[in-house]
Design a protein that fits this description.
Shape of chain A: globular
CATH topology of the largest domain in chain B: D-Maltodextrin-Binding Protein, domain 2
Largest interface: A-C, 98 and 109 residues
CATH superfamily of chain A: MetI-like
Distance between the termini of chain A: 32 Å
Chains: A mainly alpha, B alpha/beta, C mainly alpha
Radius of gyration of chain B: 22 Å
Strand order of the largest sheet of chain A: 1-2
Structural class of chain A: mainly alpha
Strand content of chain B: 5-15%
Number of domains of chain B: 2
Largest sheet of chain B: 10 strands, mixed
Number of helices of chain A: 13
Helix content of chain B: 40-55%
Number of helices of chain B: 19
Order of helices and strands of chain A: HEEHHHHHHHHHHHH
Helix content of chain A: over 70%
CATH architecture of the largest domain in chain B: 3-Layer(aba) Sandwich
Number of strands of chain B: 12
Number of domains of chain A: 1
Strand content of chain A: under 5%
Number of strands of chain A: 2
CATH superfamily of the largest domain in chain B: Periplasmic binding protein-like II
Oligomer: heterotrimer
CATH architecture of chain A: Orthogonal Bundle
Largest sheet of chain A: 2 strands, antiparallel
CATH topology of chain A: MetI-like fold
Radius of gyration of chain A: 23 Å
């Protein structure tokens, strides 16, 4: 009897406790202290005092809303691109990979073994004004078209444009998109796929009615795991961006390290976290999911 | 350890933010110039300062002397430096000069390359020092600028023992003596310096660049790089408008900011330290640049020119200093002076390739070139000994300026003016 | 980062003793494979550049981006920068310990969240979300002030504490993803046969969620070995590979010594060997 009660009532708490404690001590407590820093006033030299100065938040917003909005826009575009690129790849590996599934998935995810410093260095090398990317575009006479679409700078270069930054973001976070979609698709029994293609006249119909709905949880998780880290990323903008591509992560760094203005840095962080949380819930609502976070996990 | 030996008075003196920069400057000024300021006393600027809030300079000097009298030579030195910033042995042996130091003095060196950037390093040690903890280091290398200013202002550094710097006073170049950021070298001795000038590819630019205003040329649109930082960018802009940054006023800052705004449409990016590759490859035709970087890029096959513009240029120095609560302050003091022997300085400069604080090394390299057995060595040492990037020409010296030293209030104004330019 | 994770997932799926039906569509399209291969090519292009740079001759302080001729000297002098070697060693051991701890804690949490609905689950989810969304500077700085307050000396141990902190959530998410796809009747059957909770967990549950666990493990490993900001606050005098490389770039104009490329290449090659070996072993067993 006791063991049954334990299993059904207390077991989840017992299992969660160790990890929860770790997060409470090393994440929640420090974060709460930062929350308190965000309403302090003062300066680095004389020290900061708690004054419950809430206008730090509105000041931070009015000073940096451009960068916050830009981060969300970049995050959105990058996430959509990631989905468009990742879905067919995940589909291909899940249904057509056969016995080479693991090798293909491995090849796809291989580059992320290597440190970001090295990856970015290589990226710059490829994207630069004489690099292979622009070389290829020139060969196919695509630079002019891209110029019209404002995908390259007015002098026809890629580095230090939004294109480069978003490209870098898509590149670095693609695995976060591929993986959940692949996991969801992989659960679809091949027999189901066959049955559905018998049932529906064309393949597209079969896909739309059967496979796609089954992969929705994967897409949802993918969007979360891509959008959230992308919007708070700053490395890509700092390295691949130019004078008009700063993202909010950089602003937080500058406020913290250069201006030694810890309240503003903390306030910006909480604004960012709040905005992301709201975005995620809105997305869940639109999708009609009741518990967004639960969905994210599934 | 050392704290136990300190009289309580001195302990306070060295651990509370009482020796403000103003004080420190006078303190430094005194030791350097031997001025008889000793009679006048100034009030400790921090209201929390103890003992009536008034400590005369004389007392401060005495405290420092007492402190150093209590510091005995030990057998250990914990040294925090940047990666790739000290000589490296040919085989797995670490750093020859450190081995020499240990052999000669019996002081073992724990050498850690833990400093990645001034800002992140400051972000790490400042809370520790504030808490009254040590950093774990006896010696660290910090660039002059807001973080060093802050360390001095908050009294996080131990004033140096001026009587234990014979090599420094005999061999240090004027460039690093009695600097505006540390009058009378009260707290620091230089490790290496660099000039923030212009690096460019003469073939791509098609003409000689001699002035900061050459970077306003519309022909360079999208091919100019500038630094995205709070020191080099504004101070260079001040030079560009013909003002000495060290003595610049708020009105000058506004003009400098206007100069930068005018230039902004031409700028490809405000770089951190990643401008060298694009400059070497031709993605940038010209860029604000550090002297040592250009030297190394050319050693790696690039064909770049480095110029100190006519209007002048900022010079920065990475400084050795002793953080508060250092357990082996005396050992640090011994090391700092030890590296000022020309022979040692030459070994370091040979690897570091930035401006050495000991000009006498130039003759050593020249001799090295003469005695070289291989042509590779001869070329290298000839380049080194004649390079204006390592040994700036006399004419250049007069054009080099230190960063503006900023008070906390000034820093806010300064950042509000310049940050929106390189970050938006 | 999730690279390794995906592979592990895949391998574990192969162990998943369900009948393998190789699906043969009536008409094989060629667009999907082309797309897939293009993406793979795109993703691995920086690696190729890195491997090539590891063979590029030069002075050694920084990697030259111009081709100066082929050399093996960076391989021969791989460990000539002793601080870099130490840093790499630290990074690898810290990543291993981080993985072990984060996997144990995260798996337990993931199992609980995936198996039961219980009061408070929502707040745990929120905690995990906040953990993934929090900017690194703030995490790093806040953690440092905590360590200072508790008087914990910064170094190897505090890096480990921090890395586990930001890795747990990723393990939880992957494990839970697998867990919620499981049929609870399997565990019930085991218990009906008289197996205790521990036996059930190790003999039934764990093998079933193994893909999620190994995915989380490798994710934690990759995140730990690549962290810069949070580590820079809490490392004391301990160096790690990303810290050293970043600092080196700062004084060499944004480039890194060629040995760094070689080390990257070797880590990469080691990953390939482990993965291919694992796949081959799996196939033989099956």
């Amino acid at each position: 009897m006791i063991s049954r009660i334990w299993r059904t009532r207390l077991a989840p708490y017992a299992l969660i406790l160790p990890g929860w404690l770790w997060l409470v001590i090393f994440f929640v407590v420090p974060t709460l202290s930062m929350l308190s820093v965000s309403t302090m006033t003062g300066n680095d030299l004389d020290g900061f005092k708690q004054t419950f100065h809430l206008s730090t938040y509105s000041d931070a917003w009015s000073e940096y809303h451009t960068q916050i909005v830009r981060s969300l826009v970049y995050g959105l575009i990058a996430t959509v691109l990631c989905l468009v690129i990742a879905y067919p790849v995940a589909y291909w590996i899940a249904f057509r990979g056969g016995r080479y599934k693991s090798s293909l998935l491995f090849l796809l995810l291989l580059p992320f073994f290597v440190s970001f410093v090295i990856r970015t260095q290589s990226w710059e090398f490829m994207l630069d004004d004489h690099g292979m990317v622009l070389g290829t575009l020139r060969t196919f006479h695509l630079v002019g078209v891209m110029k019209t679409l404002h995908l390259v700078s007015s002098s026809g270069t890629i580095l230090q444009t939004s294109t480069a930054v978003i490209g870098g973001l898509v590149y670095n976070f693609l695995p976060f998109t591929v993986l959940p979609i692949y996991v969801a698709l992989e659960r679809v029994e091949p027999s189901l796929l066959e049955a559905s293609s018998d049932l529906y006249a064309n393949k597209f119909h079969a896909f739309r009615k059967v496979v796609f709905p089954l992969s929705l949880p994967g897409i949802f998780a993918a969007v979360l795991l891509t959008f959230v880290p992308v919007a708070s990323d700053y490395v890509n903008a700092q390295i691949l961006g130019g004078t008009k591509n700063t993202m909010i992560g950089t602003a937080i760094e500058t406020e913290y390290f250069t201006n030694l203005n810890y309240p503003v840095a903390a306030a910006l962080s909480f604004i960012l976290m709040a905005v992301l949380l709201i975005g995620v819930f809105l997305y869940a609502r639109i999708l009609g999911t009741e518990d967004a976070l639960e969905m994210a996990a599934a | 350890m050392s704290e136990l030996q300190l009289p309580p008075d001195l302990l306070r003196g060295l651990t509370t933010p009482r020796l403000t920069r103003r004080r420190a400057m006078q303190l430094g000024g005194m030791s350097a110039l031997g001025l008889a300021l000793a009679g006048c006393s100034i009030s400790g600027s921090s209201p929390s300062a103890s003992s009536g809030g008034k400590v005369s300079l004389e007392v401060a000097r005495e405290q420092i002397a007492t402190f150093w009298a209590s510091q005995k030579k030990g057998s250990q030195l914990n040294f925090a430096n940047w990666p790739l910033y000290i000589d490296v042995g040919s085989k797995n042996s670490d750093h020859p000069t450190l081995d020499m130091f240990t052999k000669q003095t019996g002081i073992k060196v724990k050498y850690d390359e833990v400093i990645q950037q001034d800002d992140t390093y400051y972000g790490k040690i400042a809370p520790q020092l504030k808490q009254g903890d040590g950093t774990g280091y006896d010696l660290m290398v910090i660039t002059n600028g807001i973080y060093l200013d802050d360390l001095i202002e908050r009294d996080y550094l131990i004033p140096l023992d001026q009587s234990a710097m014979p090599n420094f006073y005999a061999y240090a170049s004027d460039l690093v003596k009695d600097t505006s950021y540390d009058r009378g070298n009260a707290y620091t001795m230089a490790w290496a310096s660099g000039i923030t000038g212009i690096g460019y590819d003469p073939k791509l630019v098609g003409k000689k660049i001699t002035s900061w205003n050459d970077l306003l040329d519309p022909a360079l649109k999208g091919k100019v790089g500038m630094f995205g930082d709070t020191e080099d960018l504004p101070n260079a802009a001040l030079c560009a408008i013909g003002v000495n940054p060290e003595t610049s006023t708020e009105a000058d800052w506004k003009k400098a900011a206007d100069w930068l705004k005018k230039q902004r449409p031409l700028v490809r990016k405000y770089y951190q330290q990643d401008y060298v590759a694009p400059l070497s490859k031709g993605d940038l035709y010209a860029s604000q640049a550090w002297s040592g970087d250009i030297f190394q890029a050319n050693a790696n096959g690039a064909h770049l020119e480095f110029v100190v513009p006519d209007e002048g240029a900022p010079i920065w120095t990475d400084n050795m200093c002793i953080p508060q609560h250092a357990a082996h302050a005396r050992d640090a003091m011994i090391y700092m002076d030890w590296v000022y022997q020309p022979k040692i300085a030459a070994l370091l400069a040979d690897y570091i390739n930035y401006i050495t604080p000991v000009p006498a090394t130039q003759q050593i390299f020249a001799a090295e070139a003469k005695d070289a057995t291989s042509s590779d060595d001869r070329d290298y040492y000839t380049t080194l000994s004649t390079s204006p990037l390592v040994f700036p020409a006399q004419a250049d010296y007069s054009k080099l300026h230190r960063y503006r030293v900023l008070s906390a209030a000034e820093l806010t104004t300064w950042n509000n003016l310049f940050e929106p330019i390189y970050q938006s | 980062m999730s690279a390794i994770a995906g592979l592990a997932l895949e391998e574990a799926y192969e162990n998943d003793h369900r009948p393998v039906t190789v699906h043969k569509p009536k008409r094989k399209g060629f667009l999907l494979p082309i797309w897939g291969w293009l993406v793979i090519l795109w993703l691995s292009s920086p690696i190729v550049v890195m491997i090539v740079f590891g063979f590029n001759d030069g002075t050694g302080r920084a990697t030259s981006t111009k081709w100066n001729g082929f050399t093996f000297k960076w391989y021969q002098n791989l460990f000539s920068i002793s601080d870099l070697t130490t840093a790499l060693g630290n990074s690898i051991t810290i990543a291993i310990f981080t993985t072990l701890i984060a996997v144990v804690l995260g798996t337990l949490m993931g199992v609980a969240l995936g198996r039961w609905k219980f009061r408070g689950a929502g707040s745990v989810n929120l905690l995990l979300f906040a953990n993934i969304a929090a900017p690194e500077v703030v995490l790093g700085a806040a953690l440092l002030s905590l360590f200072l307050t508790l008087n914990i000396p910064r170094g190897y141990v505090t890096i480990l504490l921090a890395h586990v902190m930001f890795s747990i959530a990723y393990v939880v998410v992957t494990v839970r993803a697998r867990m919620s796809g499981l049929d609870p009747s399997l565990e019930e059957a085991a218990r009906d046969l008289g197996a205790g909770p521990l036996v059930t967990f190790f003999r039934v549950t764990l093998p079933l969620i193994a893909p999620g666990v190994s995915a989380g493990a490798l994710l934690a490993f990759a995140m730990s070995i690549d962290d810069y900001i949070i580590t820079s606050f809490n490392n004391g005098s301990t160096q790690t590979f990303p810290l050293w490389v970043y600092g080196a770039a700062e004084r060499t104009g944004g480039s890194v010594p060629p040995q760094v490329n070689v080390m990257g290449t070797l880590i990469f090659a080691f990953g390939v060997i482990v993965a291919v070996g694992g796949a081959v072993a799996n196939r033989k067993r099956a």
